[in-house]
């Protein structure tokens, strides 16, 4: 299990966070532990590249500033 913090710009309300959470949870092996207006804390049980995480968030309409 690997934990990551995805810093995200553009979220301004609970609807935004729900949209990003729903998008991320479509990835198999990913669990969203916490999400706020600045980003998401996730746990990965499988191999998911940072680029896949970035693309999933950007497809939902938000910008990833970093993944740690």
Write a concise synopsis of the structure shown.
The chain is α+β, with helices and mostly antiparallel strands and 68 residues long.
Write the layout of secondary structure elements.
Blueprint (H helix, E strand, L loop, with lengths): L1 E8 L4 H11 L5 E7 L2 E6 L5 H10 L3 E5 L1
| Number of beta strands | 4
Q: Choose one word for the global shape.
A: globular
Strand coverage percent = 35-45%
Q: Helix count?
A: 2
List low-confidence stretches: none
Mean model confidence by pLDDT: 97
- Report how far apart the termini are: 14 Å
Structural class: alpha+beta
Describe this structure in words.
- With 68 residues, the protein is an alpha+beta fold.
- The chain contains two helices and four strands, in the order βαββαβ.
- It has a four-stranded antiparallel β-sheet with strand order 2-3-1-4, covered by helices on one side.
- β2 and β3 form a beta hairpin.
- The longest helix has 11 residues, at 14-24.
- It is globular.
- The mean pLDDT is 97.
Keywords for this structure?
single chain; 68 residues; alpha+beta; 2 helices; 4 strands; 38% strand; globular
């Amino acid at each position: 299990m690997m934990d990551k913090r995805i810093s995200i710009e553009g979220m301004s309300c609970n609807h935004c966070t729900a949209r990003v959470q729903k998008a991320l949870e479509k990835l198999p092996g990913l669990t969203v532990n916490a999400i706020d207006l600045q980003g998401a804390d996730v746990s990965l049980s499988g191999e998911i590249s940072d680029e896949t995480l970035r693309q999933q968030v950007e497809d939902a309409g938000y910008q990833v500033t970093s993944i740690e």
